[in-house]
Amino acid sequence: MRALVTGGAGFIGSHLCDRLTGQGAEIWCIDNLYLGRRRNVEHLKTSNGFHFVELDVLDAKKLDALFTDAKFDTVFHLAANSDIAAGVADPVLDLRLNQLTTLSVLEAMRKHGVQRLFFAGTSAVFGETSAVLHEDFGPLQPISFYGASKLAAEAYVSTYANLFGLSAVVLRFPNVVGERATHGVIYDFLRKLEKNPAVLDVLGDGNQTKPYLYVADLIDAILVAWEKSSGALSVYHAAGIGNTSVREIAEIVVAAAGRPDTAIRFGAGDRGWPGDVPNFRYDISRLQALGWQPRRHSTEAVGLAVKRIRANGF
Amino acid sequence: MRALVTGGAGFIGSHLCDRLTGQGAEIWCIDNLYLGRRRNVEHLKTSNGFHFVELDVLDAKKLDALFTDAKFDTVFHLAANSDIAAGVADPVLDLRLNQLTTLSVLEAMRKHGVQRLFFAGTSAVFGETSAVLHEDFGPLQPISFYGASKLAAEAYVSTYANLFGLSAVVLRFPNVVGERATHGVIYDFLRKLEKNPAVLDVLGDGNQTKPYLYVADLIDAILVAWEKSSGALSVYHAAGIGNTSVREIAEIVVAAAGRPDTAIRFGAGDRGWPGDVPNFRYDISRLQALGWQPRRHSTEAVGLAVKRIRANGF
C-alpha cells in the first residue's frame, strides 16, 4: 500500500499512521498543523516507509505535486476541524476545513487516477434524533456547521464515487477518545482540574450520553471497513459498547486525578454548547457483520483514555 | 409580506413573482441573469410592489445593503444552477451557485433577523434508488454535483434553522415544466426539431421515466408549504400524478410541432448524461395532507408545457 493520510499528525490520523507504518505500508502523512502536532508522529520519523510533509490539503498545487511524486494507491482523508464548538462561531471554518479539503482530495484523486478513498464521517450528520442510527437512516438534519460540512463532504464523496469510478469507504465516527486528543470532554476536564482542583465546572447538566470508542478500536474499525469493502460507496457506523454520560466522565476524571474532594458543578441545559447533539445511539451491525467488534464498553474506553491522556501529557 | 425572491427572473422564480405580486405582496426580485432573463419579469415592471434588482447573491456586500433597505420578512431562495448536465463538467459551478448562494442568503438572514425561508430543494439529493421517496428517506447518496450541492445547501439550512431560530421550508422539486424554462428535455427537443425536423436525437434509450409537474402547480405547492408550515425545518415533496418517459415526451413534442414524419432516434444507455438519475418516484402525501393536490397527470403537464413553450418562444 502507498497511502496518503491527510491530517496524519492529528489525534486519530497519527494513530492510523502508527498502525499502517507498523504493517509495512508506505505512508505519506500530511498535516497543516492546525490541530495536528509534530510530536504525535515524531517517533515515526525513523520508521521505514514513513514520510511527513507539512502541507495544507487546500493548497491544490502542492497537493498535486505530491500526488505526482508519491503515486498513491489509497487516500485516508482525516484532515478536518474536529472541534464542533469552535466551528459554531464561524460558518466558513468547517466549510473550508471539512468540505473543501475533501473536494481538494477528491479532485487530486480524480486527476491522478487514485481509486480508493477512506473518509472520516461523523454521527453529527444526523442532527438530533432519538432513533438508533443505522447507516441508511433518514432524515439527515444536522444542527452544527461540523455536521453540515461533513454531510456536504459525504455528498461530494458519493458523487465522485459514482461519476469517476472511485471506491469510497465512509466510516461515521462516534465520540473517539484516547491519547493525543486535541480537545473534547476528557481533555477539557483534565485541563480545568489542573487549573482549579477544587471545582470542576461541567458544560450542561451532565446528562448528555453518547457512545465513546477508544482510538485503537476505531483504527481496527477503519482497517476492517477499508479491507472488506468494494464498490462505489460503503458507509459504516462504529461505536463502543453502551454509552457514557458526561456526569460519569466527570467522576472518572476526578477519581483518576486523585482529587476525590473536587466539587463537580453542573451547568444548565441539556447540552454543552449550541450545535452539540446531547444523545445519540448507533446501530453498528453492518460493520460487525464484516468481523469488527468493539473491544471495550464505552465507559471502559473513557477510563483508559483518561489514564493514557494523563500519562501522555495534555 | 415583504419578500425577497432570489433567482426571481428565472424559470420558476418568475412564475413565483407573478403569483406573489398578484396577491399584493411587496416583492424584491433579484437575479444575476446567469440563467434568468429580464423578459421573464418585464411585464411586472409596472405592477405595484414589484422591484427588480440585478444582483448576484454571492455579492455579500450588495445583498447586505438590500436587506438593510428592504426590511424583508421572508426569503424565497430559488437562485441556482438548475442545469444538472452543465454542472457535471465543473465541480465548483454548482458548489458556488447552489450551496454558497444559500450560505450567503442564510448569513444575511441571520444578520438582519429575517426568520422565514423557503428553499428550492430537489429529488437529486437522493441519487439513484428504486424506492418511493418520502421526505425522511435515507440514505442520501447523490450522483451529480447538482444533487451534492443541493444536499449540502439543505444541511446548512438545517443548521441555521436550529442554531439561529430560522423557520425554513424545503420543497424538493421534481422535474418541473412550463413556459420560460431555460433548458430541460422539452426545450432541448424543440430546439433540435427546429434545427433539423427530419430526425430527433434523444439522449439515452428513452426509457428514463420521471414525474413531471407543471410550473403553476409547483407554485401552488410552494405557497401551501410556505403558508402551512411553522417550526425550524419542514421538508416536502411535490410531483405531478404518475410519470412520463422520455420516449413519450419525444412523441408529444413531435406531434405538437406538426412533424409526424420526424424520425425519433434513441441513443444508447439508460440515462441522458453522467449524473442523470433515470427514474425516481415521490411520495407526496405529506404535502397532500396540508391540502395541496397536483392538478394534472405528469404527461398532461408535459403536453401543456410543450404548448406554452411553443407559444411563448424558446
Number of domains of chain A: 2
What fold name goes in the CATH topology slot of the largest domain in chain A? Rossmann fold
Summed over residues and divided by their number, the pLDDT of chain A gives a mean of 96
Tell me the total number of β-strands of chain A.
15
Strand content of chain A: 15-25%
Task: Give the chain pair forming the largest contact, with residue counts.
Answer: A-B, 36 and 36 residues
Number of helices of chain A: 10
Supply the key terms.
globular, about 40% helix, 10 helices, about 325 residues, two-stranded parallel ribbon, UDP-galactose 4-epimerase, domain 1, homodimer, alpha/beta, Rossmann fold
Summary, kept brief:
Chain A has ten helices and 15 strands.
Outline the fold blueprint:
2 copies of one chain form a homodimer.
Chain A: E1 2-6, H1 11-22, E2 26-31, E3 50-54, H2 60-70, E4 74-77, H3 84-88, H4 91-112, E5 116-122, E6 132-133, H5 145-164, E7 167-173, E8 175-177, H6 185-195, E9 199-202, E10 209-210, E11 212-214, H7 215-228, E12 233-237, E13 244-245, H8 246-256, E14 263-266, E15 281-282, H9 285-288, H10 298-312
Parallel strand pairs in A: 1-2, 1-4, 2-3, 4-5, 5-7, 6-15, 7-12, 8-11, 9-14
Antiparallel strand pairs in A: 10-13
Helix pairs in contact in A: 1-7, 2-4, 4-5, 6-8, 8-10
